[in-house]
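Hi support team,

I submitted a single chain yesterday and got back a structure, but I'm not sure I'm reading the token output correctly. Could someone confirm the output below corresponds to the sequence I sent? I've pasted both exactly as they appear in my results page.

Thanks,
R.
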Amino acid sequence: MGVMEKIKEIEAEMARTQKNKATNYHLGTLKAKLARLRNELFVEQSGGGGSNSGEGFDVARNGDARVALIGFPSVGKSSLLNALTSTESEAAAYEFTTLTCIPGVLNYKGSKIQVLDLPGIIEGAAHGAGRGKEVIAVARNADAILIVLDSMKEGLNRHREILEKELETVGIRLNQKAPDVTVSKRKSGGGIRFASTVPQTLLGPDPEKIVTQILREYKIVSADVLAREEITVDQLVDVVLGNRQYKPCLYLYNKIDAVTIEEVDQLARMPHSMVGSVAQGFNIGAPLEDDLLKQNLWKYLGLTRVYTKRKGSPPDLEEPVVLSDIRKGTTVQSLCANISTQLLRDFNYALVWGTSAKHSPQRCGLSHTLDDEDVVQIVSKTIKQQQQDKSYGQLAQQYQDKHSKKRLEAKKKKQQRLRG
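Hi R., thanks for writing in. Yes, this is the structure output for that exact sequence:
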């Protein structure tokens, strides 16, 4: 029996099984087996890598954040890219107009956000239908996902549900956080030991039993499991596999000018959703205009603008440093690392003006979290403070070697010119 047949058999058994306390253990075991088989199929179809769903499109990462446009064919993704950026992506009334990945750059609040227009995907994309593997590979590497849906077709075709299922199949979790669960494998024996700081009502009457069975399904027989929040069986399986991607996702229902106001109101009340029309400019303006879509993208990407200043000088309000919650964080340490590794090495303290400071200015360390439009002045260590560091001698020697090498190269070039 092949992997696909086993998956279908388990799905059929789960559909037949009633959900209650008596069957909770059995359903948990089936879910673990199903996730393992899907992961095996995923690795097999992607060529054995396991962490990527195909090679994807060759697009260089650019800007402060990356957003992938995903949706069925002919929902308005190319028109949306043209509206957000100055890029010209071909848009037509027929399906599959876009056959490759077309990048564009959205300039908003001093940041540069890379927007990727991807080919439309269809049901079965997770298993290679259409160009689904390449599209999903790009989605795994994006900072956020913007799913574009057609308001006229959503009621009958359930495109949102289909796309969520396709992304979930390849290990992309939308608008979820990684569970606060630690699985520590032990070389010595002792079996599975489970501990939790909160009651685990979602794991049934005997959580330790179901946790043990799930870990044994993945050939883990000796480990310590600590849960700091209430989790489900699916979340525990995700932690054990360790290859899940957690992405913020915004749903845009396009073409609202073609449906009734009652349908628009219903779609707008869906979680993580907004409505708009690229053709009519509803909630979607020109590339340099501020609108609801750009505001939501900024929020979902977790971007923060930070202005820097030198001692005795006004802050530079023209070119902010844009930090991201998703990439490196929004702390003072992230700011220093974004500017220069040397600045991080010689960091002494920071003076912060803005909403994150209790008083202005506030003297802060590397762990201080910055808010949007904060002003920061970095104060470096003095020479005496640097000399007290253990690595000062090594750094001084590296600088001396670098300086001597430059002098030697300059001397050789001068001798070559004189000889020539």
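A quick pointer for reading it: Confidence is low (pLDDT under 50) at residues 48-54. Let us know if anything else looks off.

Best,
Support desk
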